[in-house]
Write a structure and sequence with these properties.
The protein is mostly helical. It has helices spanning 4-12, 20-35, 49-63, 73-93, 95-98, 119-138, 143-158; strands at 39-40, 43-44, 111-113, 161-165, 172-176. The strands form two sheets. A three-stranded antiparallel β-sheet has the order 3-4-5, covered by helices on one side. Strands 1-2 form a two-stranded antiparallel ribbon.
């Protein structure tokens, strides 16, 4: 099960006093480590899934382009929401190879995103993150406290993500935890 502690621990390892490229890479790697704890229908991540996350990590890194020039809470929010969305699109495109039971079930269920980040969910996440980023920028918080505040918004938005098993006639909602 995904843990907010894992995400916070990994994000706190990021050296913010460096160039943009290593920060983006470290952020995406933290997200991969966080996702490696996820489960779908009680299925843990496949032992070989970490390499499947390479694509998701790469799209997140690309979506974070401009991170070092984001000077406002809104700019940072827009980049992070876009990066999370890109990451999830990539993850869910590979869901059948990520959450495979060992030994595999036959047939392996095909899992497709239904409402990855609906416009309403995306807007709610952006509003929450913008508020946290503003507070972090103006509140004189430590890096550790700032990360904890960001994770407090991100974890509930990610844990409990809903995908649908595409099994006619009635699709079944499945929760990623």
């Amino acid at each position: 099960m995904m843990s907010s502690t894992t995400l916070a621990t990994e994000l706190k390892k990021i050296n913010l006093e460096t160039t943009e490229a290593p920060v983006k890479d470290a952020w995406a790697l933290a997200y991969v480590k966080y996702m490696m704890e996820s489960e779908l229908m009680g299925l843990s991540i496949s032992p070989t899934a970490e390499s499947v996350f390479d694509t998701s990590k790469a799209v997140m890194v690309t979506a974070l382009n401009g991170l070092s020039t984001a000077k406002t809470a809104l700019q940072g929010t827009q980049l992070l929401v876009a990066a999370i969305k890109a990451f999830w699109v990539s993850v869910l495109a590979n869901a059948a190879t990520i959450w495979i039971p060992v030994p595999p079930l036959v047939p392996i269920p095909v899992v497709l995103p239904t409402a990855l980040l609906t416009p309403a969910a995306e807007q709610a996440l952006a509003i929450s993150l913008a508020s946290v980023f503003t507070a972090n920028m103006t509140g004189g918080l430590s890096e550790s406290d700032s990360v904890d505040a960001i994770v407090a918004v991100l974890h509930p938005a990610n844990a409990g993500a809903i995908v649908t098993q595409n099994t006619p006639p009635t699709p079944t909602p499945l929760t990623i935890v």
